[in-house]
Amino acid sequence: MSDDPAVEAQGLVRRFGDDAALHEVSFDVAPGELYGIIGPDGAGKTTLFRILVTLLLPDAGTARVLGRDVVKDLWNLRSRIGYMPGRFSLYPDLSVAENLGFFAALFDTTIAEARETIAPIWVQLEQFAARRAGALSGGMKQKLALCCALVHRPEILFLDEPTTGVDAVSRKEFWDLLARLRDEGLPIVVSTPYMDEAIRCDRVSLMQGGRLLVTDRPAEIGRGYPRPLLAVRGSNILGLLGALRGFPHAAAVWPFGEALHYTDARRDAQVEQITRELAAHVQSAGLSGVSMSPIAASIEDAFMWYMAQEQAA
Amino acid sequence: MTGHAIDARALTRRFGSFTAVDAITFHVEPGEVFGFLGANGAGKTTAIRMLIGVLAPTSGSATVAGYDLKTQAEQVRRRIGYMSQKFSLYEDLTVQENITLYGGIYGVSDRDIVTRTGEILGRIGLEHAGDELVRDIPLGWKQQLAFCVALLHRPAVVFLDEPTGGVDPITRRRFWELIYEAGAAGTSVLVTTHYLDEAEYCRRISIMVDGAIAAMGTPAEVRKAVGAETLDEVFLKLTRPGTAA
Question: With a threshold of 0.90, does the pTM exceed it?
Answer without folding.
Answer: no
